[in-house]
Specification:
Blueprint lengths: L1 H36 L2 H8 L3 H8 L2 H26 L4 H12 L9 H11 L4 H29 L6 H21 L6 H15 L6
Helix pairs in contact: 1-2, 1-4, 1-6, 2-3, 4-5, 4-7, 5-7, 7-8, 8-9
Length: about 210
Amino acid sequence: DMGATAKSARRTASRKQRRQQLIVATIKCIARKGMGGTSIGDVAKEAGLSQGIVNLHFESKDNLLTETLRYVADEYKTQFKKTLDEAGPGAAEKLQALIELDLHPAIMNRQKTPVWFACWGEVKSRPTYRKICDTRDRYYDEVLEDLCTTIIAEGKYRDVSASSVAIALNAMTNGLWLSYLISPRSFDRDQASSAASDLLRSYFPKHYT
């Protein structure tokens, strides 16, 4: 029955839209109140829906927070992979594009950045959060280290360790995210981008002039 199939497809689509609407509302609430301070009631109010609807789609606050974190992590990974694929042609261009992605308003903004820090603050007590964060961090570190390995071989750089450079770049990004989290109004993206370029140049002067 074509009508029933179309109806079912519509229902699935509206269910997906509703879940996304609630996740977006949750991101806004976490940015304002943190994970502990966010209630199902807050999310319902933010989304302009009833608490019953939130419970229907997510069953519990824990599920809602886990799915929100997964959504943010998946979105990040999608943009990261897209940048990795489209930048280039060389490893140096790809590495720079990935560092710049972390400073882009689509990634580092007043809603997404607090979600990451809220998650990192909870990983000790919540194995599910740890798994989501660890998967993201491991993938990020591996890609950065691989690109650095290629750049070191190309430039015949001596006394430079790919893993050390990857750690330093990751620490710099996390530090810039933290600066932004604390003072989003006074944060200077251009200055942050220049600092990132300076760090890349200090490690790989033949590639970043």
